[in-house]
Amino acid sequence: MTYFKGALLGSGAALALLGAASGSAQNAPQNAPATFATQVEQGRTLYATQCAVCHGADLTGGQFAGTLTGPNFLSRWGKVPVGELEAYIRTSMPPGGGGRLSAEAYLALTALVAHENGLALGEPVTRGLASAMPPAPPVVVSSQLRIGGITPNYPFPAAPVPVDRFAGYTPVTPEQLANPEPENWLTWRRGHNGHGFSPLDQITTENVSRLNIAWAQALPVGPNINEPLVRDGVLYVFGFGDEVFAFDAANGRPLWRYQRQLPEGTNPLSKKTIALWADKLIVSTSDLHIVALDARTGRPIWDVAMVDGTPPGYRNNGGPLVADGVVMNGLATTEPGGGLIVGVDADTGERLWSFDTVAKTGTPGGDTWNGVPDEERRGGSVWTSGTYDARTGIALWGVAQTYDTGPVRDVIPGGNNDGLYTNATLAFRPRTGELVWHYQHMANDQYDLDWAFERVIGDLEVNGEQRHVVITGGKEGLFDTLDAATGQYLSTADMGFQDFIIAIDPVTGRKTPDPALLPGRDRLALFMCPHAGGGRNWSPTAFVETTGHLFVNARDTCMELVPTEQGFLTSGVNVFYSAPADSDGNFGFIQSIDMSTGEVLWESRRRAPYDVGMLATGGGLLFTGAMDREFIAYAQDDGQQLWRAGLTGVPNASPITYAVDGRQYVAVVTGMGNPLALGLPGYTPELPVPQVNSSSIYVFALPEE
What we know:
CATH superfamily of the largest domain: Quinoprotein alcohol dehydrogenase-like superfamily
CATH architecture of the largest domain: 8 Propeller
């Protein structure tokens, strides 16, 4: 029998009803039952064939999923309307394929669960039934030693009533996503414009040295690159293994937890982003689904596959962007066909559109692949979520290079080997998927120096004129500024560590690599800067629009490209890390760049490479972190280090700041595993990475007065 196994957890209770992906309909009731008792018996038959393998024959839990009866279960579902339980089962089960059983089957299974928890209904279970599940009975804690239990016979003092963070919850609006309240961090990089800047200024350059740990929580062990979100005192974070948590943002009290049980053989991947929309928290999963959770309870509302079947090679590292009522998500792959961006209705989960990031014959850009057949074109991965420009109504996405460099290295007579849409910014209408404009930052990339990172939207003075722009940079430390409405090239800023681009066209921005540094199996070994791992890389920048200053961290690395018959790049080269010829042994550095002029204002260097995004605040501070497990604060005006804290794990995500009840907090997630942490430990052998890759969220604040 083909089956799915899984568990969805919340407040200590598990619910993971199992159903076959196909063939289950014949086990479902064919006619609506007349009584609750009839439903229960039909549910018992269904449960034995569809659910018992995970939850156990008697509903008390099994190898793969938890109990569906008793105090633990009712601590979550007691007093909840039966219709709400039915909706949860119907939209969540089987895991990753909610709704695959018949409507009658879900009603019957709900009736069985209700009956086994002591509920006797005088009517059949129907969708939206208001009758409530039984309340949870008093819990008596005991042990085999018969000590340490809590007796129900003698009353305890009343426990403090925790703050209800969801009281008075209102839907998140598009206006809030575009311009969040100062206390909130509503999207990746805080708002849809991708600035990574918060106006909060309670923590300043004068008092940051007094920061202390406010609270911390362990997350599932494993790599974690997630940037949390905060809305009205609730912090949401994605954990390794596709678990999602909601915490009280003031003290770390758990509010709910969602756990997706991935199909066997699925490689769990962390996600940079999660997203809020209306009353939903939108997450994308390692098995290539998008799931809408109720932001107040963690219960699934809808669940949809991004692609049909299980195409080989797709990876989902970036995460969702939600704008104009559409969830957009990009996928990465090294397989033929290239990357993909999909659009899904945020209210219903209906798939609306998809866009191939490798142009095919007969489509715009399809003639830029040097004659390579469509079925052999590779690249165009989407590693990072997009940003949204509320002024123009355009969503902006970054697309990576191709590793299949050999077929496009040398242009054929009369051909074009630019390779669209690699290393490009793509501008979409979210509702329709219409490509409004595109701009290719680096054509025919032969070095794995992709431009797949954040797109920053803002107003900036360029050549003496105020412009509405989008800013983005590649691994080589070049940052292009484009007109946000049209994609017109405006300017390029150079961080100053790349040595292979010898010319940039002042009108088009087209970049010319040094022909002497073109690699391949037919050439000698080459030395160039930076390394294919960056320079700057996955760590997003922070932009302060009032000053036009962009803050970016990077790694001072170079590479040797060694010819070989096969090779990491199909032109026939392997890539090796190297230090710059004049290295001082300080491999991590931060720069402040005036994007109006392209001038580097200051640079601050340290030994350990950075692998954490930048956070800028209204208090004049920058926060980031590094491979030596340090979380650090700098001054925006001169790069002076002002504060540091040691963490148990390597931080790999981007820090955020928020406020609850008038108190400002700064949070960061640990869990080594993003590409910046791979390969670089050899640069600093005296700073070994942890042997146990723990993951946690750390939250700091000033001492309470």
